[in-house]
User: What shape does this take?
Amino acid sequence: MATYKGIKGFTIQTIAGDPPAPIVGQVWYNTTSNKLKGYAPVTGAWASGGTMVSPNYQMGGAGTQTAALMMGGHSGGTQGINTVQSYDGASWTAVNSLNATKYQSAGAGIQTAALSFAGNAGAPPYTNQKTCEEYDGTCWTEVNDLNTARQVLGAAGIQTSALAFGGAVPAASALCESYNGTSWTEVGDLTTATNQMAGFGATNTAALSAGGSPYTPNTMKWNGTAWTEVNNLNTGRRGVQGSGSSTAGIIFGGWTSPDADVANTESYDGTTWTEVADLGASKAWGAAGTYAPNGKSISFGGMTPAVLNTTEEWTSGLSVVTFTSS
Assistant: This one.
């Protein structure tokens, strides 16, 4: 049976009172109150943010709630786009475009050091891409390609430590590649081939894949060496968005069978998914920003099936909680 020390690498502290600056996931025994306590996110909510410069869906996303980046995508019709928009927590601004037109691509990193990779060429004959571009806050530069062209894939990490997994190649794939800031290397496959899932994580050594086609609730966790099946979502879906780390994150929106877009949001604590407050509006195929340690994330664009230019901001508090037997 797994122990707390086996999972976290250390035993539960015994202290008189509560620690002055606990971290998310920390657990301790308070000898003053004789209670087992922890520091964890509490129920959050979505609020409206700034309107995008133009509607978009199936784009890459990066950054945080107050410094996000939208990359490429699809504004409707038959063509993809290469435009990029930057968000400052209040409004969106058009910035320098990608070198390659693409949609159904992936993104990683922060607003001033982002990565855009893979996707669909954005115009007939809609070929899968393996191109990769780095952003320095001003300009995009083409860097080494992925080994395998793909679209509707999962992604995690930062510009110098990213992960690309699954996707359509053209069938659903289990392939996973790791980026070290220079080149992509094939690493351990997903346990189950999938695409159209939410993918997120802090680095290329700790990531999560949740949901995917066809409307699966499957969740897989990456530890830097191998993927492991963990607890399922409450609602299986595809075209879903997500952000966070492999131990604290959220997923939202997507399609449930038969292609009904939803507003459902679920929170992950490293073990279990919990239904929390819904998006203000149902959507699929949007993009997300990082779920920061302070419990903040962002969802932008998407389709209902109308293409959206809306932004929603997620905020959840962090609080000392007391564990009970109930």
